[in-house]
Amino acid sequence: MSTTTAITAADINKLRQATGAGMMDCRKALTETGGDFEAAIDWLRKQGQKIAAKRSDREAKEGVVIAQTTTDNKIGFIVCVSCETDFVSKNADFVAFVQSIANAAVSNDVKTIEALNEVTINGAKVSDMVNDKLASIGEKIGIVKFERIEAPYVASYIHGAYRLGVLVALSTEAAEAGKDVAMQIAALNPVAVDANSVPTEVVERERNIVIETMKSDPKMVGKADDMIAKIAEGKLNAFFKEQTLLAQPFVKDGSKSVADYLASVSKDLQVLNFKRVALG
Prior knowledge:
alpha+beta, Tetrahydropterin Synthase, Chain A, 3-stranded antiparallel β-sheet, 11 helices, 21% strand, flat
């Protein structure tokens, strides 16, 4: 669907950075979709481009991510405070500042960013502390991501100099397995725990992309729709294996899946949920 929407160099560059596609391909994708960024990504994929899935955890370019749990490991929190440069994000004082906010989230068991901004630390509201820090360092900062998980056991993991945080909700206490699974999530970025927990809209989006890609394949010309649909389901199963946690190959032992690894630890051990927040 071509439109007359003006496509800027900044739009093209943003799409190139998110997908790795060529400049002309990105321009055409944006033109064909009227400048709609998400639709342009889908358009590129339908043309057969190998595009890395764009995730919601790629928002803040610089900042600090803290993931931690309560002392009993029943509740976990992730706090992400953004800034504009790595000069600030790598500063020990700024890291300590974000850590103090994360500590406040834990001690007050806050449930939202709004509630966290209202918490007081040594008599000062977090929102006021953020504004004061902004004024002192001269960069725009803010709490841009907040996650909370509650479970029989929650494991936390921070990777890459406070650039990525993971929480894993487990059915029973398993500290080592929790860390292993958290590292798996950090490394391979699954979209869901298993195929059944992948959001319907994500499944339908992938199915549509697979079918449209197949229809444009010369080898598929003349194939019946039911055959295309059957092949598409097989490709979807490959998507689930790659993008869902339990089906992924275990990073520490590729001969088994994450589900196999969990079963080897305990037949009762299950991953109930997870959260992953990253700078990117």
